Amino acid sequence: MRKRLIICFVGIGVGFAIAYSFKESLFVLLMQPLKSAMTPGQKLIFTGLPEAFFVYIEVSFSEGSFCSTPDPLPDVAVIAPGLYKNEQRFLLPLLVLSCFFFAGGVLFGYSVVFPMRSSISWVLNQTLSRLSPP
């Protein structure tokens, strides 16, 4: 078990390192729906010195974790001996369908919900009306 955890953490670390090398293109890709909803005068800012750096770290870590997901997925087999035979046959289809629906939800949010100018504009108006610069 310890060996598998170490392998999973190394996989996430390698995924993070690879994603960090593409940090700017990943950030541009993720910010595209927000940029299209913003008015021409608005721009993204960072308010603290390390904030821009940590945004790149968070984007790289989430993308590295997502890309290294196939490494810990076989570890689900660890729980298989504790299941009854009729429950074990549902394990693989449940795992495949969970991944499929998660990816479908991400794709739906990025391609349908985020491009709707009204949904992002509503969020921008809610935050901007309650916050004021120092």
Could you characterize the architecture of this molecule?
The chain is mainly α. The chain has one domain (2-130). The protein contains 6 helices and no strands. Helix 1 crosses helix 3 (51-67). The longest helix has 23 residues, at 91-113. The chain is flat and about 60 Å long. The model has no long low-confidence stretch (mean pLDDT 79).
Radius of gyration: 20 Å
Total domains, how many? 1
Q: What level of helicity do the residues show? A: 55-70%
The major beta sheet can be summarized as: none
Give the overall average pLDDT: 79
Tally of helical runs: 6
Strand content: under 5%
Concise summary:
The chain is an all-alpha fold. The protein has helices at residues 2-21, 23-37, 51-67, 85-88, 91-113, 117-130. The termini are far apart.
Q: Which features does this protein show?
A:
134 residues, mainly alpha, 6 helices, 69% helix, 0% strand
